[in-house]
Amino acid sequence: MRDYRELIVYQIAYDLVLQVYSIMPFLPEYEQKNIGDQLRRCATSIPINIAEGTGANSNKVLFNHLSYAYGSAKELGVLIQLCRDLKYIDEETYNKLNDRNETFKAKMYKYLVTLEESLVNKQWHAFFSQKNQSAAYRIKQGIIPK
User: pTM to 2 decimals?
Assistant: First the structure.
């Protein structure tokens, strides 16, 4: 796998972390331990999961970590919406963060679909390539890849 820092999804995710940290001073002190901590954790987990997944020797592990990153981006969307609705950030700041997050999610979704198709195709190729059993026999016996 190539360097995670070259991936567009990583670059967007890293930029998103910086944007999230830039709004921390706008949160009231009593929210720093609640919404603030959650914002920081879910935002930072996105590029961290991308980096960790690309270091794996398995596309299944990569897929899992990228899925976690995608889930964290969905969580982040709720939190930045909450910050806007509680008037901790203005509409312009919200739009900037939300647009960046939506861009990330769209690109990550495409990446996940492509990776998932690759995993499924690999499973089916292995299924139909097994020695000493024809594909028709395995299908008839109900032996299919998981």
Answer: 0.80
